[in-house]
Amino acid sequence: MAGPADDRQVVGDVRECNFHRQPHALYGDVGTYRNTIEADGGKTTVTPDGNIEVSFLGLVAYRQSINRVEHWNGDQLTSFDGITVENGTTTEVSGALQGDAFVVRSPRGAVAAPRTIRPANPWSKDIVGAQAVFTPDEGIVERLRLVAEDNTTVMIADAEVPAQHYEMTRLDNSKHYDVWLRARGTPITFSVANGDDVTTFTLRSS
Question: Less packed terminus of the chain by CB within 10 Å, N or C?
Fold first, then answer.
């Protein structure tokens, strides 16, 4: 399986996505999500940030902002810190490699997860095939299985782009992840479906 190091071509690489959230798709793009990737030898820092704002008749109905930092040593996640502010409520999630486990801390408590766990942030191909991820906004550890893999194309800026599509699901089938990647591992589009709530991210620049 490819690791994050396979996708670290450029120091200061910035990948920005527009995204929309169903059932609010009628509002169009409601926010931006960005991964800033900085490599230094075998170590990489990934800094995700983003903002969502849904307005109706001039009134803000929903607002969320995120600021996170991932530290990697090769293909090993060594630490994570994240702050999510949702409609004025702040949630902090952190994690660190401790011996044979990666300990995720959140308002729910501390969970000793497998050291191979990944944050649910497909900035590289490494999340595909991961047996466990944690949600960076809540710190929930999820066990996943890969249920589909195929070659396809994705429309980006009125052009068809060849892509590899991967579908992953939680073991209890309550949540689904779909990721479309370019050949070099850059995510083009990814979506998270939790019941009827679907959040879709589409690459703006890479």
Answer: N
**Quick check: 187 and 200 in contact, CB under 8 A?**
no
Put simply, whether the predicted model's pTM sits higher than 0.70 gets the answer yes
CA atoms of 103 and 117, how far apart (whole Å): 10
Instruction: Give the largest CA-CA distance in the chain.
Output: 52
Model pLDDT, residue 9: 41
Whole-angstrom distance, CA of residue 63 vs CA of residue 82: 17
How many angstroms separate the CA atoms of 170 and 1, rounded?
A: 20
In this prediction, residues 89-99 reach a mean pLDDT of 97
Determine the pLDDT at residue 182: 85
